[in-house]
Amino acid sequence: MPKHYSNIYGYFDFDDIYNLAVNKFPKDASFIEIGVWLGKSACYMAELLKEKESNNKFYCLDHFMGEINATDQQDIVRKNQGNVYNLFIENMTQAGVQNFYTPLKDFAQNAAYKFPDKSFDFIFLDAEHTYGCVKNDLETWYPKLKDNGIFAGHDYNNQVKQAVDEFFAKRSKGIGHSRSSWIVFNS
Predict the structure, then answer these.
(1) For 73-127, how does the pLDDT look when each residue is reduced to its tens digit (9 = 90+)?
(2) Residue 140 contacts by C-beta under 8 Å, 6 or more apart in sequence?
(3) Which of 10, 39, 77, 114 is deepest in the core (most CB within 10 A)?
């Protein structure tokens, strides 16, 4: 059972969704977490993959400058000269999961173009939480999801909820809920 993730500062209550993804796609799958902050949830996923001796690819994407409107994040970013990438790497290394993920330091919109459509079995979205940013991320990353894949995200409330609900209503996709997250099965 993953344990090192609990030593990392951050927000994480979607372990059930990560467990579901690892169990549904046990081998040769591709996962991406968009918005990893200091790595709490990413560490949990990497620990799961390590325990299962999985050869799944797991990408951890972030610009590592924190959410603009999150005061606690901006305080940490300022203390680290405007970027927390090194803290993320340090957290993952201390957990011993450096061989179970690939860090991507970029903006979500830019990084999407590095991957062809239908590249990922599992996409988890937890980046900027404004309506416009979530809408753009959904439009950019949904084509990257494979058939029978899982698209999920955190903080299913306010502007995130509005963007997610509108996006998937247009595609006639049902939205499941788990704690403070949303989940869509691409079947």
Answers:
(1) 999 999 989 889 999 999 999 999 999 999 999 999 999 999 999 999 999 999 9
(2) 108, 109, 112
(3) 39
Query: Over the stretch 132-173, which tens digit does the pLDDT of each residue have?
Result: 999 999 999 999 999 999 999 999 999 999 999 999 999 999
Do 139 and 167 touch, CB atoms closer than 8 A?
yes
Give the tokens for residue 105: 């330091």
Q: Which residues contact 96 (CB under 8 A, 6 or more apart)?
A: 4, 50
Kindly give the interhelix angle for 85-94 and 40-51, rounded to the nearest 10 degrees. Answer: 30
Closest-CA residue to 4 (of 69, 64, 75, 93): 93
- Residue at token pair 């404004």: 130
- End-to-end CA, the chain: 30
Q: Please state, in angstroms and rounded to a whole number, the distance separating the CA atoms of residues 135 and 71.
A: 23
Quote the CA–CA distance of 163 and 131 in Å, as a whole number. Answer: 6
* This prediction's pTM: 0.96
